[in-house]
Amino acid sequence: MARLQGGPRRSSQHSSEGVRRIDEKQFVRTVAERTGLSRQEAADLTWATLETLAHRVSPGEARNLITELPEGLAEAVRRGTTDLIERFGHHDSVRRVAERTMLKEEEADRGVRTVLAVLREAISEKEFNDLMSQLGTDFSQALESAG
Length: 147
Prior knowledge:
Layout: H1 24-35, H2 39-54, H3 59-68, H4 71-80, H5 90-101, H6 105-122, H7 125-135, H8 137-146
Helix pairs in contact: 1-2, 1-6, 2-4, 2-5, 2-6, 3-4, 3-7, 5-6, 6-8
């Protein structure tokens, strides 16, 4: 799978994987291109998705994700991180994102799937697999149906 291009990773632990750090603008631009949303809508969607997903994972997993994201996107994860891990599925995450972004639920669903797909390209395979293992099967199925 092709990786998004950007500057080199700061952490040497991922350098052997050839993963490249991308900036927030490239991440959002990619989400916008794949969803057909404006860049502002894609930025709002990306932030809302990352913040919502952070409610679903452990603080340790959130910290690991933060280290692999550009600062602007890392801030979205920080804002969503809590000590109490919430339990909700993909459909509830879509509903939450739709409410926060004022997008239609179908647009939010496509958007959440797209953010996960771009995230898979933007972070290390190990970190992405760790994230998905905490999110659960319905998130993995949603991502696979996104293509």
